[in-house]
Design goal:
The complex is a heterotrimer of chains A (268), B (289) and C (324). Chain A is an alpha/beta fold. Chain A is built from eleven helices and ten strands. A six-stranded mixed sheet of chain A has the order 6-7-8-3-9-10, sandwiched between helices. In chain A, strands 2-1-4-5 form a four-stranded antiparallel sheet. In chain A, helix 5 runs parallel beside helix 7 and helix 7 packs parallel to helix 8. The longest helix of chain A has 18 residues. In chain A, 53% of the residues are buried. The N terminus and C terminus of chain B are likely disordered. Chain B is elongated, with a radius of gyration of 23 Å. Chain B is built from ten helices and no strands. With 324 residues, chain C is α/β, with parallel strands linked by helices. Chain C has a single domain, classed as Rossmann fold (3-Layer(aba) Sandwich), CATH 3.40.50.300. Chain C has 13 helices and twelve strands. The chains are: A alpha/beta (268), B mainly alpha (289), C alpha/beta (324). At the A-C interface, helix 8, helix 9, helix 10 and helix 11 of A face helix 8, helix 9, helix 10, helix 11 and helix 12 of C.
Amino acid sequence: MTPLVEARGIRFRYPSGRRRGDASWTIDDVDLTLDRAATLGIVGESGSGKSTLIRILCGLIAANEGEVRFDGRGIGDWLARDRLGFRARNQIVFQNPRRSLDPRMTVATSLGEPIRALERRRPITSELAAGLERVGLSPALLDRYPHQLSGGQLQRVAIARALTVKPSVLYADEPTSALDVSVQAQVLNLLMDLRDELGLTLVLVTHNLAVVGRLAERVLVLRRGVVVDAGATVDVLARPGNAYTEALVQAAAEVSLADGGKPISAGA
Amino acid sequence: MAEIAQDVAATHAPARRIPPALVIGGVLVALVVGVALLSFFWTPQDPARLNVRSRLAPPGTPGFPLGTDRLGRDMLTQIMVGARNSLYVSIVATVFALCVGTVLGLLTAAAGPRTQSVLARAVDVGVAIPGILVALVIATALEPGNTASIIAIVIWFIPLAARVTIGPAKQVLALDFVEAALAYGRGNAFVMTRHVLPNIGSILIVQASVMFASGILAEAALSFLGIGAQPPTASWGRILKEAQPMIDVAPSLMLFPGLAILLAVLGFNLLGDGLRSYLDPRQIAVQGS
Amino acid sequence: MLSIRDLQVRIGAHEIVGIEALDIGAGRRVGLVGESGSGKSITAMSIAGLQPREAVISGSIRFDDRELVGMRESELARMRGAEIGFIPQDPTRALNPTMRVGRQIAEALRLNTELDRGAVHARTLELLEQVRLPDAASYLRRYPHQISGGQQQRVLIAMAIAAGPRLLIADEPTTALDVTVQNEILRLIVELSTAHGMGLLFVSHELGVVRSVCDEIGVIYGGRLVEFGSSRDIVTRPRHRYTSALIGAAPELPRGDALARMMGKRFSVIPGAVPPIGGFPIGCRFRNRCGAASEQCASEPPVESDAGGHRLKCWHPVAAGDAA
């Protein structure tokens, strides 16, 4: 079974326009495989390039070098010949729902956008209502504006929006980082439920190891654009093969509540 | 903290304080527009009528509240009719300049880094060139008149409109919902018109008010220099120009058109300021959280 | 050292914060944990007199024997910096982008101490070293955007401790930072607090972070202090339903074999969401999200009780020895 997404030798750097030969690669020689219905976690700190990487995978940014294949065909090919089809099958949920929904559009309008753009038709109210219900929201919210909803509700709307066109892959860029702890749990559970229900392939970018530990069977650890660790989550996190991953696991343990937690140790 | 402030704003939202500038500006603008409209139906005297026997009458003369000029034309009438002209030229020119300038600004904001540099610098150069000189050159090439004024002012103002648009447009383009729109297949044109424009709308409205003010001043300047409205079209600038030689004899002849220009320009500027204060908090809500 | 009694912060018609009692002993580290909208930040800011203009404070905040509520702004300003240091949340917003780092620290010194030019310079270098910025001298001339987030936060800490305050208030000082950097900053704060005998009020939405830094923890919900006790106690035997729910909902990385077992397990959830200002129910503010709410919770706000060593406001606390 060919993997759904395959990336080889991806390299990317932002055009700096000014100084030559100084800008380092944001993504430096990254390989990645994503199987159908699998969940991949991409872990990294700021500056790791994780957000850039998923934008390359879902075709929002073009890599400078390397190739990304989706369902057997190169992205370039997809965008040239079936751009709308590709986009419908690859959807993305962003970190901050207050920024990823146009504040001037009602929930209904925002929800219906992918259908209008990718299926070239007007959305039917009942399908929008069903979309909201599927993420645990009441259809009464259809007429509201983003500023009238809480962060958690908005993120659900964003997820619902992504699902309206029945994507094969859902990329989630730190989907719960901007939310309160109590709400994070709800949204993460929702993602897991939807993934199981719809057979979604899920790519989850996060800096939180605990989240990756529950959601993703496979994980990729990125550091400054380079993959420093990859494999089954259970292996990578329980037995880190690498100093950096070890440091991340260590850091999480230091502020953990397990066994009543402990004061942070001095000097390191 | 920002969350709390927003929450308070959202649940509280009492009638937002209307800034005094908005009220005063609104009143002045309404006054000017009202007078201009009124002039189509009624003026104290027939605008074309020359009351030669009453020439250079001082203000307060019965029948001629603001006096008459050297040809005996009633000043109040001239001012009322002149309002028409100033508003007409200013509004037409501003609307055109805004349309073209905004499009130029949006294109610049959306362009790749190198093209954007070039375009942005070109706009800066456009802003730097003294508009009045541009206007003079253009009007010299064309026949003097309102049309020449309009064309000159449009060309003068386009870089200004573009410049104002570039920054805010870039800010909106950096927001996630623009990326989201691209992710679900929307094209650049759609993003520009349906996402960026509405979100910079309030900035454009404010800019329009301020440009109307500048337009009135520009039109008056061009008419004063003799390139704008030609006789018999009344224009505040032209009234000023004709009143200039009489300054020793009848200084009030310059006073009234000058006052009219002042009030109109002040009105539009205050309106712009007031709108900016009134509309701004909502702008912050877009980016604040 | 710091004593809060019957503190009320109102914005418009709404009571945002209502804390009956909270104390910070000299040299003690107290944490305030709550989600956004809980009122924890406003409480911290109110102590320093930095609350938003619309907020009206009543009650008592005593620092040693001085009453801070109602103090004139000029006096409060003098206390800030000299006796109460404040570490703000987002370093990118708290530092002046147009001023070199060295100068910003020097300003803090100039405003709050009597040191002369030369002494200010020496102390600035000393501070930079205290916050573990290697090669301190090179930082003097850098602009904020030229240093990393973690380094910026260290500069802010340097500015906060510059005049040797006795109380440090840290408002989510590590929220914007990566976990590895965060832990170093936390270590630094603890070190400084211990070395200089500074009391600490640490505000955060992350219980794990607060636990690792503080001796005592207060849990805030809806502006109310619902539970307060030693860190160990709060985390191992939470009695308030919200506290225990919070602990349950926080994602934890399991160790070793537990990791495999937890894969795919759903997180435990606190139903509902924090209501917006003015949206809290009467009686116990948490009752709409609580599994054990009763009639009593709807009619009477819970009164403080002593639950074996820690303070609690709940009509139906988790029974001692119960799993949450």
